[in-house]
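Hey,

The postdoc asked me to send both predictions to you directly instead of through the lab channel. I've kept everything plain text so nothing gets mangled by the mail client. Protein one:
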Amino acid sequence: MSAITALGKRGRSRPALLGRAPQDTPAGVGTYLLLAVTFLFAAFPLYWMFVIATSTDEALAKLPPAVIPGDQFLVNLREVFSLQDVYFAASLVNSVIVATVVTASVLFFCSLAGFAFAKLRFKGSRGLMLFVVLTLTVPNQLGIVALYIVMGKLGWNGTLLAVIAPGLVTAFGVFYMRQFIVNTVPDELVESARVDGASTMRIYANIVLPTIRPALAVLGLLTFVATWNDFQWPLITLSGTDFPTSMVAISDLASGNYVIYRRVLAGAFIATVPLLVMLFIGGRQIVRGIMEGAVKS
């Protein structure tokens, strides 16, 4: 077994905790009751969205309102996808493309930049990191006009490139990955790999990436959800086009003098399903990333 392979396996191991681990305390009835109430409050809006999405206009006018799902979900969904001025099916495809590309780019560039700030020594690193952190204090709305002008000069306004390009790397992602790498990748591990003859990219690929996998899951989910739910910038740059994102399409469903809420919430429910799938797939890695990010090696 080569030394770099051994180092990679060491990098995948969890940070050791000093001292004896505390004994787990069994949760009481009050804890489970509190969790159940919290879950009901969190899940009720999604359930109510589904109830409206499966109901008719007559059911919505009833008092008290219906709390049991109806049988009109497919009918309402067919109406949403058949509207000629909303392009809902295309908007879902566009959202998948934008969110996937942005998430993949953020995971690569932010982890690479975080590794550079955490473990490489170069002139001006502290000043650059301070600049990255300071950009987090600037609201995105302040750059909308300048961003629109830049995208116009590039000829990208009205295309998905204008939605994808501004999100390819984020200051939060760089800062988060830098902090996680500092806490979970020992300096000795990196130096041992260098002595073994590993290049910087080899260390990044074989040691850093396997170690920060939980953090990548957390950042990936946060980025995917934020990109999928982004509304302001896609609305501005894709205004008047035939290929909006899902949030813009839902806004189009809710526009007009008379809003058909069963259509709006049917579309909103379908647009929420990919987020629930992402949470279901990456839930375990997310919890692991949060727990390991709080432990210093």
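Protein two:
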Amino acid sequence: MSEEEPEPGPGADETSSHEAFTNAAWSIPSYILSGMAVYGGLGWLLDHWLGTSALFPIGILVGLALAIFLVYHRYGR
């Protein structure tokens, strides 16, 4: 016995569109914050290890740039 899936109703497109927007609304800030945290953390570790002070802000900016590129690549097309 196989159960048939119910056919989507007239509002199904609106619901999936709303879910896609909600997912993007949570994903975009997550990408940006995690990119800055990961690359800023790597910069901080390298600064600590090498005794410098410039790699932390550079890491944050590189992480931000890569995150923006990823968001554009995923959602901007």
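Summary for protein two, as requested: The radius of gyration is 20 Å.

Thanks,
C.
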